[in-house]
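INTERNAL AUDIT FORM
Audit reference: QA-55
Scope: verify that the stored structure record matches its stored sequence.
Auditor: D.O.
Record contents follow.
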Amino acid sequence: MTRDHCTGTRQTDSLPRLNSKVKKKQHHQRGLGGVASSSPAVDEHTVDIEISFENASFLEPIKAHLNSLSFPIQVNSTDQVINILSIEVTTVCRPAGNEIWCSCETGYRWPQESCLPHLTCQDHGGSPAGNHCSCLKGLPPKGPFCQLRGDVTLRMSVRLNVGFQEDLRNSSSALYRSYKTDLEMAFWKGYRILPGFKMVTVTGFRPGSVVVTYEVTTTTSSPELMRKANEQVLQNLNQTYKMDYNSFQAVTSNETKFSVIPEIIFEGDTVSLVCENEVPSSNVSWYHVERRSDVQNSSRFWIYTSVLNNMTSLSRFTIYNITQGDAGEYICKLTLDIFEYEARKKINVTPIRISANEEMQVMCNSPVSLNCCSDIHVNWSKIEWKQEGKISIPGNSETDTDPRCSKYTLHANEVQCLSGSAGTQVVYTCEFTSAHGARGSKNIQVTFTSVANLIITPDPISVSEGQSLSIKCTSDVNSYDEVYWNTSAGIKIHKRFYTTRRCPNGTESVLTVKTATREWNGTYYCIFRYKNSYRVATKDVTVHPLPLESNIMVDPLEAVVPLRGSRHLKCCIEDDEDYKVTFQMDSWFFPAAKEVNGKQVCYKYDFTANSVFQCPKHVDVFCHFTNAVNNSVRSTSMKLNLVPEMTIMCQDPVIGVGEPGRVIQKLCQFSDIPSSPGGPAGGIITYECVGSQWKVKRNNCISAPINSLLQLAKALIKSPTQDKKLATYLKDLSISTGKVENEVSSFPGSLGAIINILDLLSTVPTQVNSEMMTHVLSTVNVILDKPILSTWKVLQQQQTNQSSQLLDSVERFSRALQSEDGTSLCISQTNVQMKGMVIRSGHPKSYKQSFVFADSDLWGNVAIDNFQLENLQTDSSIVTVAFPTLKTIIAQEVQGENFTNSLVMTTTVTHNITMPFSISMTFKNNNPLGGLPQCVFWNFNLANHTGGWDNSGCYVKEVNEDSVSCSCDHLTSFSILMSPDSPDPGSLLKILLDIISYIGLCFSILSLAACLVVEAVVWKSVTKNRTSYMRHTCIVNIAASLLVADIWFIVAAAIDDHHYILNETACVATTFFIHFFYLSVFFWMLTLGLMLFYRLVFILHDTSRSTQKAIAFSLGYGCPLVISVITVGATQPQEVYTRKNACWLNWEDTKALLAFIIPALIIVVVNVTITVVVITKILRPSIGDKPSKQEKSSLFQISKSIGVLTPLLGLTWGFGLATVFPGSNAVFHIVFTLLNAFQGLFILLFGCLWDQKVQEALLNKFSLSRWSSQLSKSTSLGSSTPVFSMSSPISRRFNNLFGKTGTYDVSTPETTSSSVENTSSAYSLLN
């Protein structure tokens, strides 16, 4: 097959022309010699034909005629057959003024070689944008005409109205191959008429009847020609396929030009998506793939489609202020007839990212540059700087060498940035704008600070050791992040030495040293830091050497000097400075002689007692040390006692002389105690002259190594770098204590010195690591060793509180402990063990620690549940320290014989606990038969702040043969006490009292309720006269008050029984109402008695019912209210209104319980007296003193009620008062519980049902005669409300009325405190 291109004659006139391309096939007959055969040979040619017209109006009819032809058209000749397959118009030239414009038809274009040398139509605005070669001015002189475009693959489909079979899904099935072969043959025959047709392929089948998908490779074809081709397909396909002509669809994707402006899209840009297709149709739609929706015009989206020159479709989709959500793939689809011209483009939206320092500090008078840079290299249309703030400080924008960046230079002068604006923040914004409208900005917060003018104490600071010094540093700027002081070595001085405060016009920081030492000599730096800016002021401090008073050792401390005798006096220091030393006696000063002995320098003077002095006389002698700057210090006094020589009996060259019975003290280093090479010994030794010999009365000497450490500790806490030196010192202390253990056991003074050292060091405000804590506990282990217990006894005999002091020191170290590496802490020594953990974020475990001391046969456990740990701050440390021997030595005299051996366990938390905290402990019970255990903690506030055991907030959970379990609501030092007067748990007495309490309370409440019901039923029948009315009014109020009081007792008992952490407000309210309503019971009984007395004694005086009621209610409720309010008002401000572990009136601290006991007992006495007088008056009336028969009956009934109820109530509270005293017999507890348990029943029987009128009213009401007869015989007495049993919830409430708290009966001696603010965390067991 060959292709020939023939071009017709070219015209040079201006007539319209039409070029057509004719496609034909020629069939030739060829003969071959010898064999007769015929075979058609087919040649295919394409011929270009040019047609010119005289009239342009002929163009469209000719084109229409050509389009209407049916192909193929057969042309016969003698030797060949020609079939014309198609005729297509390719090029049309039309006159345009004096020019001819030639344009290509659809599917054709000018070759590139024709476009370049010729002037195109768009130069004059006639060609669509983007189609630069669709129209030329005149035909190219050397041809060719418009040519077919490049290959286009049409994705097409058509429906067959036959049933779909599953084999059509399988490309290897026979059915699939049969369909494919038949369809491709029909497609080939039909689409070969398309210009540039190359191939057609069936790609598959899908349901929907049967939808055939296939691809046609050709050049762009017009809809008219495609319809003709589809008709040819239908004619060439077997009719059994039932092809639906109207179902043809075609999609082409490479005919559309899709462009996006700009190429790099930023958030906020205005973006244009342009779809251009040389198809004259405006039916264009846009689709966003990610949103799965068609794009419609809106405020941000705008679509405009137009057809240019009836040839080209141009659709522009504009997105305003584009966002990240608009990113994704877009489809532009043009629909024309069966054709869909589709193009896709994916766009990415990039946020504008600008990098800059978000915060900057600018010092006034100092230029600074602000810089902003974008992350992407783009030529920005504009970069602007803006500012917003209280002050206006503009700058200059500069172009950076990097086009991505912009620089803004500020220079704030004094006018713009006054001192008042120090710390003022201004926000500068750099805004980048793209060429298409996107804006990105970055805020830079600039803080303007004036140059802080620091003014430090101007005067030279020159002090001597022992004096105080103060350095004031002020700034005119009150905005700062930190103010601190440094030494010349760059070491921060601890905050305890200085204070900083803001003033209206600046800031002031004052460094204060109460006792200057030589370590404070040097230069000090006052540093103000704001952000990364520092202002520093310096001050030189000169500390001149001068001994501290405590470092001047005098000999003697006191001495006896015989008249006309002499005595050597000396003052020694560990310092060889050049001092002027004088001895002062009264107003006389004497020069001293200097003597150097190694490191020690002594100044001596020989005192002579001459005849000037009279005997006896006491002389105080001092030595004065004066340094180079004329500052002086005076030693402690040396007391000289002048006595007649004849009285002296004791003489010693070292100790001195004295008369019998004389007691003197002497520094140990000047005594006859052997000296050690480690330096001078410390402490004081006391001598007494017995007969003619000096005897050691008390030895408080401190060994030289320990004394040296004590002096270093005293110097350490005065050092500016004490926190840095602490670790080294604790290590030295541990090593030295271990070496001198024998000396510690021999000298109580050494033991006391070590305790004082630990106390001093525990006040150093710094964190303690595990290594430091190991050294602390190593020292504690030595001084708590069993061989040293005898030395502890000497300290206890001297009434010192050093055992409590030791416990307090260990707790302070524990609270400062921080773990560096893990969550577990564990240190174990023979006489002390420490375990703990660090609370980490999301820590799942509860706190459980066990301690076992095999040598002491003691053990204990501590537990804190996970719920409690969740309330602690992250990185808090919980530390428990257990001591097996401390209980034996700590404040033994406090408990006397009630003491049992147990552990002392102290638990601390590094951070403060702001909410109630529950801790459970288990102690080994070494005294299972010794009585009821009592959980206690060490309260440092007791015994004049020397400490003692306290049971506030603690209770016993469980007692076994070998263990005691305790629970407390605070972290303190815990132990166990034994209460000898309390019944053992599970004892018969305890069970009996519990039963009486529970049964009695039920009877009491039911009886009181019944009494009120009966009174309501018979009220009208029994209140016909004034006396009966007032009597029943009193009975109703007595019953109601006692009923309410019992209910409040239930509330308080529930709190105590469940050991809830006593809410102070709720407990105070409960106590107040119990007090008030119990007093109301007594005062209404008093009202009843006074009313009876009034009716019989003042017969002729008549008072109205309303007046009597007013007086009765004022007395019955007014007086109790006044007493209750005064009681709570006088005691609650000091928090001593209630007991510490029970909701009832305090007895131990304020005796507030007397506000109930005294009124109650007075009323009992008054009512008994009234009853006797009234009964006598009724039996023996005076002349004219005869009340009516009805009133006499009421009065007699009243007197019977009072006569029975008052003694019962009086006896009840009398027995209750007896149980307060320690050692009271158990009989008092039983009787008191019985009487109190049935108090409500007594009121029902004797106050209500015993009244004959009440009985008659009930009989009339219910007609129960048998009940009446039985009731008249019911006169037996019972017992009362469950007030004072030993350990049931309700019984504990009543027992608390007279001294019982918690789980102990009223006789239990409680150790309480008026304050628990300063409490230890040591817990133990006493018997």
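Auditor finding: record pair retrieved intact. Residues 1076 and 1120 are 6 Å apart (CA to CA).
Action required: none
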